[in-house]
Amino acid sequence: MATYDDNNIFARILRGEIPCQRLYEDEFALAFPDIKPQAPCHVLVIPKGKYVSATDFGAKAKPEEITGFYRAVSLVAEKLGVAESGYRLIANAGPDSRQEVPHFHVHILGGHRLGAMLVAP
Ligand code: 5GP
Question: Does any ligand 1 atom lie closer than 6 A to the CB of residue 14?
Fold first, then answer.
């Protein structure tokens, strides 16, 4: 597992060094719009803790961090108005997924009918 890079973009957003629109924040999570939206609603939710990926988070986060994070994801989906209409949660993890930012995050994508799941190269 890669070691956590304290200078990754999302670590810098958490520290307030890079601006973002803070749509939701609590002790476990921060949600903000993706800078390059791929759907009418495209929001990122990140944990406050230092985890490289979904794998790292699932393996090392405390149970309260995991619960708190996924509760925040649900709250954000409600707040964005996509909980009923539907949305897709994506967590890229590692090179084959093309994960760009090495701080665990989920993408909430919705706001219209999404295309098929992408698995092709
Ligand atoms: P990944 O490929 O790692 O799952 O997704 C990283 C996402 O972060 C991309 O969708 C990219 O557009 C987004 N992103 C990268 N840099 C920034 C930034 O500085 N601000 C925001 N709001 N999003 C960013």
Answer: no
